[in-house]
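Q: Okay, next protein. This is AhpC/TSA family protein from Pedobacter hiemivivus. I've checked the sequence twice, so it should be correct. Can you predict the 3D structure?
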Amino acid sequence: MRKIITCAAIGVLPIFAFAQLKQHKFVLDGKIVADTLSTGKIYLDYTDHGVYRRDSAELKNNTYHFEGSISDKAVTTNLFWHEVKNGIKVNKSFKGFVQFYSVPGQISLLHHKGFNQFLITGSPVQDDLNQVNQMMKARTQPEDVIKKDYIKSHPNSWLSFVFLEKIVRAKQISFAEGTTLYNGLSTGLKQYEQVKDVHKILSSYQTVAIGKKAMDFTANDVNGKPVSLSSFKGKYILVDFWASWCHPCRAENPVMVMAYQKYKSKDFDILGVSLDGNKKAWLAAIKQDGVAWGQVSNLQAFNDKIAMQYGITSIPRNFLIDPDGKIVAMDLRGEKLEEKLAEVFK
């Protein structure tokens, strides 16, 4: 039996620029408690509304200082400590790592027993996360119950969005319960685009299913020309969501090449929807895998509006649509694709 592997949305989002949003300043000060002088650099990185940012600061008297800005209500922040020589990071000089939520305003970190253990002040989101983690560690209730209770009792917290997004993307909640939790979020929180995207994915629970009409979409092909799903009406069309960086997707391409060659003369076609962010990598993968069918992409990875429309939270995913535009099968991988097409075109 073939092992099914998918490339999930969480943790693989690439870098994109978005419309200018209101920025809020944050100041980050850290101190390493040690008997000896700490040397080197602290490197900081975070992703704010899809835009990757990074910075570095010298350690001076065991302290470091950062100033930056964010448009999101909170951002996951990573700090790395490395030794440097003549201003350049020394190879294999990694000395520590911490991760936490930054918010607008003043944040302070006190590192002790090395670097990886720290106390943080000024980040209520991180404070709440620490409390939730303690509750989950105690195991007095299932994790999903703890997170859902938190969402209900903290409608304006960024952490409520984080918990809900993960639950929804993993499809660990029903449409009804997910919608109830989403509707309970504050108006202020629902102004953020990422939060709105959760609602889009929830909506797809109801609209993307076997027997439902496939939602039309339009995107540019490899030559920049718009292609619409509706233009394939009258034939069976396999809409395939994939990306050049997704190894399971690339492993499926030879199967689809064989299916395409076998059935393309019988009113069958494939339309690839790439969740790439790099056009050069996308085009290279098409050439390397011998993909001969049409391809479109907005080059926005999982932030792609089509992916949101179809509730795509992991790839590969595909939908077989009949000549009338209805979804007749989903997630046809390996032998299942050949079996279904043989049934359709018998």
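A: Here is a summary of the prediction. The chain has three domains: 24-121, 127-207, 212-345. The mean pLDDT is 90.
Q: Noted. On to the next one.
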